[in-house]
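Incident log, entry 3
Record: AraC family transcriptional regulator (190 residues)
Problem: checksum mismatch between cached and fresh output.
Input:
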Amino acid sequence: MNRLFIKNMVCQRCIAAVKQEFNKLGLEPTSLTLGEADLTESLTDEQLAQLDMGLNALGFERIDDRKARIIEAVKNKIIQLIHHSKEIDRKYNWSTILAEHAHYEYNYLSNLFSSVEGITLEQYIIRQKIEKAKELLFYDELNLSEIASQLGYSSVAHLSSQFKKVTGMTPSALKKNRQPKDIRKPLDDL
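Fresh output:
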């Protein structure tokens, strides 16, 4: 299977537009999701060039597998530490952790991540923490102080400030007014 990674796909219309570009080349992806297309056959250099030209004209860009793997490794490490650890140490030096994990300088990782994902690594980490906070609030097992501590925040105020900036509401408001739309997002949608 040949997997292509495509930057700037953010909605169902993007998927439809990218699908059209594949169809113009006589190609039918076995799977086409936000940011990824799976093909059974490998593409020739000419097909890749034509695809790139069509994608670029629509505001999309194919990214090479090496970059995508680096970004995926970084995301997986962040998700592992935030969603699958008991507690996040306040003293985490994310730049050191991620650089050691991916075996690249942090500046390179940060620039690559921002150029491909459209947000900074710091913003991604904050979004993951807020998503974990939403989960913990939703299940109502911990109070806000315990959640702040578990997620490595120095205070409830700091957590609340970032929470409101990301979600548009305070943690208390989310807890009081839980609606189906407030339920957690899939991690790969962040």
